Amino acid sequence: MDYKSFNVEIKNQIAHVQLSRPEAINSMNMDFWLELPECVKSIDASGEARVIVISSTGKHFSAGMDLSVFSSPKAAPMSGDPGRMGENLRRVVMQLQASLSSLEEVRIPVLSAVQGGCIGGALDMVCASDSRYCTSDAYFTIKETELGMTADVGTLQRLPKLMPQGVVRELAYTGRKFTAQEAKNLGFVNEIYESHEALLEGVMAIAASIAKNSPLAVVGCKEMLNYSRDHSVEDSLKYMATWQSGMFRPNDMMKTFAAKSTKTQAEFDDVWPVKGLFE
């Protein structure tokens, strides 16, 4: 499909989703918020890709929320009954939240490759991905505080699960930038690369390594890690046992053992496409 905000390519079971509005610093306009969940869900549903890489174009990854989203009378009318205005705004914010949550909800891993500035809503987005990588000149900021509002589409909920609570609070209260090296030291990003080209090469290599594994095993890993993040150890272990009793079959393991004995790469079936009830 063609998108206004992204270039999408699926090759070697890796879906590369690239923000494609460098002239606007890849700001997240209305098209972006509508297209992101459609894009990643379509990739996941097809079963053609085993991992998604999100990258960007130009000097900066993204300037974050395009203010046209909230200045749109359709999205956030500025007059009328206060109660109805509030109810409408709540639904708008929840729709924006759901757009980014799609990165967590798809079956396959999502890797974010960040160059330059990752600002405001863009930080919300990469927090929802499975892993993050960046260039040495990258920086991150909870910009909303500095603009006079509270970040509302995921950073304040997800970042404390990724970094120490006290540091997150400082970053949220001050709105200051934190650098690539600070992000690496805090465990927010997995690796730093010296250039945009090296970043894409490195992240694509990691994606290729993921794509070689049994897609059913990787899907299970993501499901369990997401569940365990939000539940107790006891509940998570029970869910793991239930998942394993239903999803585990020896087929992929036998392929792995056979490949190792012949020093070849195992070939696994894709997970089935997601279809509607009557398709």
UniProtKB/TrEMBL annotation:
GO terms for molecular function: isomerase activity. The keyword tRNA-binding does not apply. Keywords: Acetylation, Fatty acid metabolism, Isomerase, Lipid metabolism, Peroxisome. Gene3D superfamilies: 2-enoyl-CoA Hydratase, Chain A, domain 1, Lyase 2-enoyl-coa Hydratase, Chain A, domain 2. Pathway: Lipid metabolism; fatty acid beta-oxidation. It comes from the Bacteria. The keyword Iron does not apply. One of its GO terms (biological process) is fatty acid beta-oxidation. Transmembrane segments: none annotated. It is found in: Peroxisome. InterPro entries: ClpP/crotonase-like_dom_sf (IPR029045), Ech1-like (IPR045002), Enoyl-CoA_hydra/iso (IPR001753), Enoyl-CoA_hydra_C (IPR014748). GO terms for cellular component: cytoplasm. Belongs to the enoyl-CoA hydratase/isomerase family. This is Enoyl-CoA hydratase/isomerase family protein. It comes from Bermanella marisrubri.
